[in-house]
Amino acid sequence: MEANEERATPAREARAIVSRLLFGQLATYAVGAAVRLGVLDRIGDGTRTAADVAASGGTDPQATLRLLRALAALDLLTEHEAGVFEATAAGALLRRDAPDSMATLARVFCEPFMTRARERVEDSVRSGAPAFDAIFGTDFFSHLKDEPELSRAFNAAMGQRTHTAAQHVPPHYDFGRFTTIVDVGGGDGTLIAAILRAHPAPRGMIYDRPEGLAQAPAKLAAAGVAERVTLEPGDFFAAAPPGGDLYLLKSVLHDWNDEQCAGILGHIRQVLPPDGRLVIIEPVLGDTVRPGATALPYMSDLNMLVTVGGRERTRADFEDLCATAGFKITGVTPLPTADGLYVIEAAAI
User: Fold this and answer.
1) Contact of 271 with 326, CB cutoff 8 Å
2) Which residue numbers delimit the O-methyltransferase C-terminal domain (predicted)?
């Protein structure tokens, strides 16, 4: 061993963990900058020099090189030789033209309306209330409703976030045995489109606010299922539409507190036929955090706390919540997704 080579020790590793976390916010903003500057779009499928990327984007050459090297250290690029870069599989997801692009999601998650509340985690931990409301003077979804451009971007980002789930949900649940699947809070239709493409028998309905449904017609038409889907504007806090024998909630309940969720589930219980089913697609937290567990669901939990006042839940939490609204959980199936999603089936008691 070289005289100046430092041996890895538990203490050194511990300090490295804390140091990486302290720079985590800067890593997020580096990704956001890369998306806004179109860095991955300009690199494309092959290799490109930092000088070329800077010239095509009108950015400073030295600063561009520094950004690209930071992205390489984050495993989004590979630097094959000095100043020559190629996108990794993860980096390719930040291209706008990628079939499974996460570019809009990355951009939205770096916007001030998403980041400012995270700066106030301490306030939310003290109060138990979302910091967003105090910062912006209204709740998250009301703010979006008053900002049409942000609303469109957010809906598109949520569609991109649902894309991976939409690939894994259809083969992990027998949707084909139902007649009408109602996607409550289904937004642009990414999930229901994937389900109907995989299961040709059922029809679908998307129930959401008008601003949530705005991009659904184009998404459903592109998927070739528009004629099988009804768009029903409405508010799931006020009612659930009748006519379905399967009601689907994907990433809805984690936005809301237990009382609000009980209201949403109660409306579905009122219109669900005796042989109908409820399917909830959400992360399911363990009763304890085991060593090596992915941090993503727990970071999402904090994001729900500061932004909307919702939460991620354990299986016991879901059982209690469903029981309050007249449901009993009949199955919990993990999905092979990075964000720890599960398919939770429930039947009426």
Assistant:
1) no
2) 121-328
Name the active-site residue from 163, 172, 254, 267.
254
CB burial of residue 59 (10 Å; 0-12, 13-18, 19+)? middle
For CA atoms 330, 186, 145, 235, give the dihedral sign: negative
Extract the tokens encoding 332. Answer: 């919990």
Please state, in angstroms and as integers, the Cα–Cα distance from residue 76 to each residue in 158, 166, 185, 205, following that order: 22, 24, 33, 38
267 an active-site residue?
Answer: no
pTM value is 0.88
pLDDT tens track, the chain, 349 positions:
444 455 678 999 999 999 999 999 999 999 999 999 999 999 999 999 999 999 999 999 999 999 999 999 999 999 999 999 999 999 999 999 998 899 999 999 999 999 999 999 999 999 999 999 999 999 999 999 899 899 889 988 988 888 888 889 999 999 999 999 999 999 999 999 999 999 999 999 999 999 889 999 999 999 999 999 999 999 999 999 999 999 999 999 999 999 999 999 999 999 999 999 999 999 999 999 999 888 999 999 999 999 999 999 999 999 999 999 999 999 999 998 877 899 999 999 9
24-36 and 61-73 helices, crossing angle to 10° = 120
